[in-house]
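WP5 quarterly update. Target: Pyridoxal phosphate-dependent aminotransferase. Source organism: Natronosalvus hydrolyticus. Length: 366 aa.
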Amino acid sequence: MDYETPLFFHVMGYAADADGDVIDMVSGNPDWEPPRALRTALHEYADLEPDQFQYPPSAGLRELRGEVADRRGVDPSQVVITNGAGEANYLAMARALERNVGDEIVMTDPVYPYYPGKTTMLGGTQRFVETAPDGSLDPADVRDVASEDTAAIIVNTPNNPTGAVYPESTIRALVEIAEDNDALLIADEVYDHFDLSGTFTSALTVDSSNRIVTNAFSKSMAITGFRVGYAIFPPELVENAKSRHMLVNVAGSRPSQYAVAHALRETGPDYYEANRDLLRDRVTTFTSALEAAGAEYTRPDGSFYVMARFSGYPGTLANVERLIDEAGVAGMPGEAFGSARPDWIRFALVTPRVETAANRLATYFE
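Structure tokens (predicted):
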């Protein structure tokens, strides 16, 4: 079977091998500090007894599952600690398909490329719903596509790559559509701490046995290398997910989970607000330069990505490589995110050199 291979690592490798100075705006690796409590916990961990260096419980450390459950208003038994949001989404999509009520996964276009890739890997069929130019999703369009063949509807809010944040009315409508078609709504909320609009609504606010919520600490704590995420399942769906997690991974990293649990408990809201303020400033800096260059752009309500369209310069892989070589700025081609935004390029605002990158683009396209 041929799987779709996301282009992220190709573009990152091309940028790394390029001659000259290249500003990486490809990956979603935050450049700011993780919580101080997380560093402290890692130091503490090094001096623990040998038994703490062995397998943790497969579903995750009890302490971490409890912290997640308390914050999300669910029972700890519903929480599976995963190898980042990537595994959380894999478990959720697998659980949807193994219910044998359909083989289609409905997703948006533009789309985070790992969703269609996982769908193929799991033997499912992709169905796409195009979003509006601002990234908003009309539930009526989802309802038109959903059918008895739908196993799941997967959405990401705040969204990568569009920056859209779906309002409560959209989330409730999507859960209802899933229920009406005996499908599952999978809500990937990994950017929930980067809601810049104040309008984010978690799917957990809707009580339903037809929804799964996935998340991770990769972005919110600036620890993409720790690979600590989680999925929250309805009680009747969680046991098979735990078994699949055990068979694929055995368990996750014990020291990573230990550090995250301590950081959750000891990190206040000021940490997250400071990072949102940083991103707001970067959005303003970057989009102002794009406007000066005459580019069209999206101004994100959440997450930390900006999509831009430069006249006569479609967002192909070849043009992205050319931009790396000639302007010294690396972004992601719009064609990597489906068929709806082939003329656009996505830039991640997770570099302290946002202003320099913006100026380089403005100069290049003037």
